[in-house]
Specification:
alpha/beta, 11 helices, 10 strands, about 350 residues
């Protein structure tokens, strides 16, 4: 049977750019010894079987060549579930395996993954087995961070944190993190882990110009505890781009195709805000996405911003944003169009 043209076995292994550490600044994650690039690549979108393996490979390799060595996944990223990890594993095997110790690979479990009562939530059984499956898909013996992806109200937090402790002791993860935990439960998670001698390395919250919820309680807590943060959705699922400036919904946009966003988000209030942000971006000499990412990175509680990418050029835009300095005038001008400090946009 002929080998398909995009079969990884036909790909010449990648030789990484010698300049890969010249562009993106790094920041230490809390009080740890880990430094992360200010931009990280998330495989939440654009890394399922609906995309060619070669296009995904090119994005991953281009990101690595620009110094974006942190790759963020979860067990159910796709579609279908597991596909993003499988894609990453294929590229790791064919191209990036020799650079594994330069990579910082993270994955998560907490949302639905397989049928039945053990394929979702925060139980020890789910977290341990999910990580074992993730490692098999990614073709590696460990991840750098394993996250509890969400609070499970039906599982005692003590059980979830003990599972993370034991995962670290097993060597299958070097560090642990939590995602989508409100401040009070983040404090409790930190307390439980610290009691077992395990550092909470990172918290992963949603944060953007359109959702500033972490500013109220979470970021002050992370600063107090000296825990890093890897924020996701800095472009608010694509709303902080130029795609919708004319009020239309392009056929290839997330508002047209994603289950996480639909056309109802393109309101008159949104258009007023995004057009105002566009004006501020032009004043700053940046694109809207660059301004949005630079704005997120201005917060000292933010270690890194996780971006998605559907083409290599978006990586380059984010690299530029990672070095942008926003003036006081630009920051002040954005306040009119951003969510209120400490909260999301009103519905």
């Amino acid at each position: 049977m002929p080998i398909p043209a995009d079969d990884p076995r036909l790909v010449t292994p990648h030789a990484a750019a010698a300049t890969r550490y010249d562009d993106v600044p790094f920041r230490r994650a809390g009080a740890s010894g880990v430094r992360l690039p200010r931009i990280s690549l998330g495989l939440w979108q654009n890394f399922g079987r609906d995309r060619s393996i070669e296009s995904q490979r090119q994005i991953l390799l281009h990101a690595f060549d620009r110094g974006i060595v942190h790759v963020d996944l979860a067990n159910n990223y796709g579609p279908p579930y597991g596909a993003a990890e499988s894609t990453f594993g294929s590229v790791l095997e064919t191209d990036l395996g020799r650079y594994r110790d330069e990579l910082f690979v993270t994955t998560k479990a907490g949302y639905d993954m397989w049928p039945g009562p053990y394929g979702d939530g925060g139980s020890r059984k789910y977290l341990v087995r999910s990580l074992e499956q993730s490692l098999a898909r990614m073709r590696t013996d460990h991840v750098d961070v394993f996250y509890s992806h969400r609070v499970d109200p039906e599982t005692p937090i003590e059980e979830t944190m003990q599972a993370l402790v034991d995962i670290v002791r097993s060597g299958k993860a070097l560090y642990v993190g939590i995602s989508n935990y409100p401040a009070p439960l983040a404090r409790r998670a930190h307390e439980l882990l610290a009691g077992e001698g395990v550092r909470l390395l990172l918290h992963q919250p949603r944060y953007s110009l359109f959702d500033r919820t972490p500013e109220a309680e979470l970021f002050p807590l992370l600063t107090e505890l000296r825990v890093g943060s890897a924020v996701f959705s800095p472009l608010a699922q694509g709303l902080l781009t130029a795609k919708y400036l004319d009020g239309g919904i392009p056929a290839d946009s997330r508002a047209a195709n994603s289950r996480f966003l639909d056309g109802s988000a393109i309101t008159d209030d949104y258009l007023r805000r995004i057009r105002g942000i566009d004006g501020v971006a032009k004043q700053a000499g940046l694109s809207i996405p660059q301004l949005a990412v630079a704005w997120v990175l201005r917060n000292p509680a933010v270690t890194t911003a996780i971006i998605g990418a559907s083409r290599p050029g978006q990586i380059d835009e984010a690299v530029t944003a990672s070095r942008a300095e926003l003036s006081a005038d630009v920051l002040a001008a954005l306040e009119e169009f951003a969510a209120p400090s400490g909260g999301p946009l009103a519905d």
